[in-house]
Each structure stands twice: as C-alpha cells, then as structure tokens.
Amino acid sequence: MAPQTSRRVVITGMGVVSPLGSTVDVFWHLLSRGESAVRPITSFDTSPFQACLAAEVRDFDPEDFLHRKQARRMGRATQFAVASAMMATRDSGIDLEQEDRGSIGISIGTSIGGMKEAFEFHDAAKITAYERVNPFTMGMTFPNAISSEVAIVLGLHGPCETYSIGCSSTANAIGRAYEWIKSGQAALVVAGGTEAPLHPSVYAAMNAGRALAPDERGAIRDLPRPFDKTRCGMVLGEGAGSFILEEYEHARARGARMYAELEGWGFTCDAHSMVKAATTGQEQQRAARLALSTAHWFPEEVDYVNACGLGTMELDALETHTVKQVLGPHAYRVPISSFKASLGHAFAASGAFQLIGTAKAMEHQFIPPTLNLTTPDPSCDLDYVSGEGRVAHIDRALINSFGFGGKNIVLALSRIDAKVAMTGSRAASAGYGLHHLAGVS
C-alpha cells in the first residue's frame, strides 16, 4: 500500500455497458426497481449444457462509439471498455485539451480479456488448416489491448495498465488508481473493468466445474439466489464500467460533480486454492479490516455493505461470516445487498457494476434489492434487503470483491464530506471498533 497522504480521491465520472442498459441512468433505474437481465442465452447454442441462462448485453453497438474499421479490430471486452471510458470521460465534464495528457493514468481490470476471440480465431483457423489467420488476432486477444485501446481513443500518455487477478480485477484496478492519486503520481485516472466471457468454451468450462446454477434449460428463471437457502450456483454475465477518479482539489477547482469519495481499500490473498476460498475467512476479514483502517473508519460507521454475493452455498455463508467478524454486533444493523441476481456474475465487470450501483445508492439514499431471496438460511442471517429496494441513510459503504484464486479486495466508499456523528450506539461501541482495528497489520 502507498503511504497515506492528505490527498483525497473522488469519482467525477461514470460510464457503463451492462445487461441492464448502457447508460448510468438506465442502469440505475432498472437496478433500483429490482429488474433482472438474466434470460436464456441468445448468442450461442446451450443445448449441450445443463444451464442456459446468462445476463447478456443486448443493446450495445460499438459503432455508436467507434468507426467500423476501428471497432472490428477490437475484441468485445475491449469495445465495452472503450465505450464505457468514453462515457465516463464525457460524464465527468473534463476537458482533456486543458489537461496534461502525459500525467493521466489508465487502470483497467479484466479476468479473461479476449479469450472469447481467441477461441473463435482458433476455430476459424483450424478450418483453413491455419492458412488464413486474422492479422489482428494478437491485438484483439491480449489483455494488454484493453487499456492500450482506451489510451489510443482518449489520447492519454500516462501510466497505462491492465490488471488480471480474476473476479476482483476491477477492484484492484480501482485500488491501484487510488494509490496513484494518493501518492501524487497522478491527479486524474481513467479506471474500471470489463468482461465478455459468453462463449461456449468458457460456458462449458464453468458448467463442467459445476459452478453454474442448473436451470433445467431455462425452465427455472429465479437464478442466481444470493444468500437464499436454496442457492445453487452462479449465472454468467458480461459488460463493463469505467470511472474518472480525480484528486479532490483538482476536481473542486474545475467545479466537477463528485459522485463519491474512495477513502480506502484492502487487498489480501488466501493462498489456498484456485477454486475454493479458505473456509476460515481470515483473509477476507483482513481485507475488510485493512479497508476500514486505511479509511480511518470504525466498524460502527459502516452504513451499507455491497456484497460479492455469488449465490453459491459455501461462498455466501463465508461472506456472511466475514461481515459478522469484521463488524461485530453492528453487522445485524447494516443493510447488505448483492447485484448478482440482476446482472449475473460478469467476472471483473461485476466489480464495476458494484461500484457504480453503490455510488448511485449513496446519491439517491436508496438500496437496490437482492433478488430471488425468498427462503431464509440460518447460516445467512443478516439484513440482505430482499424483495424490494429500500430507502436508507448511507454515508459510508464497504464493497466486497472476492475472486477466484482467493484474491480478496474490499473498497471503502463514502458520500462527499459525509459527517457521521459518533453518538448513541456508535459512541457506546467505539471501544469495540478500536479493539477490532487494532488487529490490522
């Protein structure tokens, strides 16, 4: 972690390409209403599999953002990233002509990058005995292409990186951008995450690993079911989200709108298994405590937890245990929700959806619901905001991103200049909070 300074990091622009729409306003409207984008897949034949559901992006045309020739040289994940970055830049109101383009960074997360195109190119080349191969294959499939294409389109010359650490890749990209700004390396960073995993080979691999919720070929639609007693696995999704992260004084000087402030983050690794989280939850807990520590929050100051909430038996119970251990008795007073039942699990892009949804929840003081949670589970006994969304006072929120390979990241997000008085039960429990934070190393 970079040394802490007085520099503050705020979000001044957001852009999204999602199964619930490809503008932030539409995304938030449908998410807050409790709409689900999970439907039978239309982009490929799912008859060989037990599952057929996914949350597909259906309203995206890359030529709305790029010239046809330029778009055809990018993979789908890159197209998503470029489009969302362009929207975030426009949303921020930043005039790049008035900025030092050499100091603006790019930090993008993706889990599998252009694997979809790699499979497609392999299949096509095999048919022709490798005599005809698309000359743009390398540039379309490398994860590096994603951040590079964003830099090319926006004309930015600062540090430009793609992070790939599984499902928590976007949270990592956001955390690294936060460090760049806190340390003074940059005043402005384009950050986010993207994913396009909906290809038969990826789907087959997830299906073979029994990670997907069985849906009886679409006969069952109320999937996934985060934290529900009958939860049985995840449903895949796709999309991207981008953000303009900016140093507070830089944003204030130009009169920028500020959605929220990123006050801290924590990052740990289970070092246990590629496919199973460590059952103790110790490293998930340490990531959350690191986020609280770097944000200088007491556990009792957390108003909302945006959960990873994958909808699997083991992981949802483990995440519940983590929240209890980190927040103590306050855990039972904190509303929690997962967006996965609305948007599917879009690998790295899920982290972008989580951050956008949480920032908008703070803006509107309203928590979107956790869908398909109808049967209480004794092992998941916290307040998961099921059924319908809820009006709530949200000044500070934790965002959990727990990825394959045991990569645990928690972001600490707050309303701009949120002032929470330590009164009543919070003041009474301040000693508890200090005791908990003292365990952070």
Report on the structure:
- This protein has helices at 24-33, 68-72, 76-92, 115-127, 137-141, 144-154, 169-183, 200-208, 248-253, 282-295, 313-327, 340-343, 348-364, 424-428, 430-437, and strands spanning 9-17, 38-40, 53-55, 105-109, 160-163, 188-195, 236-237, 239-247, 260-269, 304-306, 336-337, 366-367, 390-391, 396-403, 407-414.
- The chain has 441 residues and is an alpha/beta fold.
- It folds into 2 domains: 9-253, Peroxisomal Thiolase, Chain A, domain 1; 264-430, Thiolase/Chalcone synthase (Peroxisomal Thiolase, Chain A, domain 1).
- The strands form 3 sheets. A 10-stranded mixed β-sheet has the order 5-4-6-8-1-9-15-14-10-11, with helices on both faces. A 3-stranded mixed β-sheet has the order 2-3-7. The protein has a two-stranded antiparallel sheet with strand order 12-13.
- The longest helix has 17 residues, at 76-92.
- It is globular and about 65 Å long.
- 55% of the residues are buried.
Compute the number of structural domains.
Answer: 2
> Low-confidence parts lasting 5 or more residues at pLDDT below 50?
420-441
Count of helix runs = 15
Q: What share of the residues does DSSP label as strand, in percent?
A: 15-25%
Task: State the CATH architecture of the largest domain.
Answer: 3-Layer(aba) Sandwich
**How are the strands of the biggest sheet laid out side by side?**
5-4-6-8-1-9-15-14-10-11
Largest sheet: 10 strands, mixed
CATH class of the largest domain: Alpha Beta
**Secondary-structure-derived class:** alpha/beta
How far apart lie the N and C ends?
Answer: 12 Å
Fourth-level CATH superfamily of the largest domain: Thiolase/Chalcone synthase
